[in-house]
């Protein structure tokens, strides 16, 4: 295969990701919420899961543990999440949303849904599954090394 015949996929993915982040950040700002897209991902995950360990959050969001720890620190400082000791393991923490964190999630969710609809406008479920498969395949190409 002639790789010169294909666009630089990294650049295309990066441009798309940056554009999506800009729209999400603008929406959050318009709602009066000071939160990053990375913080939103953890908030949304905790809203769905109820509580999770740092390791579970890292695995579920495809982020490394130190990054997740920093995001949790920022969310805790904003009083949107809290750390609780694991019942049978003093070394580990469960992370859970606070009432304020649930409120922020509830406030932002209508805008997030609107952005998700905009993202997929003109595309269908088959497109979604095809994109997921392509991205999974690209990751696998590099994870095998």
TrEMBL record:
<dbReference type="InterPro" id="IPR036390">
    <property type="entry name" value="WH_DNA-bd_sf"/>
</dbReference>
<protein>
    <submittedName>
        <fullName>HTH-type transcriptional repressor NicR</fullName>
    </submittedName>
</protein>
<dbReference type="InterPro" id="IPR036388">
    <property type="entry name" value="WH-like_DNA-bd_sf"/>
</dbReference>
<keyword id="KW-0804">Transcription</keyword>
<feature type="domain" description="HTH marR-type">
    <location>
        <begin position="6"/>
        <end position="140"/>
    </location>
</feature>
<dbReference type="Pfam" id="PF01047">
    <property type="entry name" value="MarR"/>
</dbReference>
<keyword id="KW-0805">Transcription regulation</keyword>
<keyword id="KW-0238">DNA-binding</keyword>
<dbReference type="InterPro" id="IPR039422">
    <property type="entry name" value="MarR/SlyA-like"/>
</dbReference>
<dbReference type="InterPro" id="IPR000835">
    <property type="entry name" value="HTH_MarR-typ"/>
</dbReference>
